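User: hey, got a sec? need Diadenosine tetraphosphate (Ap4A) HIT family hydrolase folded
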Amino acid sequence: MLSCPFCAKTKNDYYLESENFAVLYNISPILPGHSLVIPKLHKESLFELTNEELAEFMLLGKNTALLLCKVFQTDAFNWAIQEREVAGQSVAHLHMHVVPRKLGDMVNPGDWYQRLEKIESGDIDTYARYRLSDEILNKLTQKMKQKAIELGFQ
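Assistant: Yep! Here you go:
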């Protein structure tokens, strides 16, 4: 789908991948390491996945969380799937948020979800959040790709 920002991504934008899914560093990270697990082909809903694809998607999510926990020296993380706009999904392409967490990274540990949805401003997970420049996003992606290789995830 041409208008989908995730469909426009290429192998160079991924820092971790499986056969049908890939991991991107979020262009609007809530916290350092905030990443997205996406299908490589356009799928809007979790319900479009076969059981085998669902298992692959979840396993890549688990491996992403493991990698992020190692890189960011923590054992805590959040992950979320927002299905449809009513649930806060801003890009109509299935994606799982994986966010490494550390003690004190937010005033209240549950604040990450309000920041994801931007509830305080009325903007749900939109372009209202800070966005990384293409240069910084590329540097972070390359750093994560190198870490994935060093730690045996690729």
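Quick note: The domain at 11-150 is CATH 3.30.428.10 (HIT family, subunit A). Let me know if you need anything else on Diadenosine tetraphosphate (Ap4A) HIT family hydrolase.
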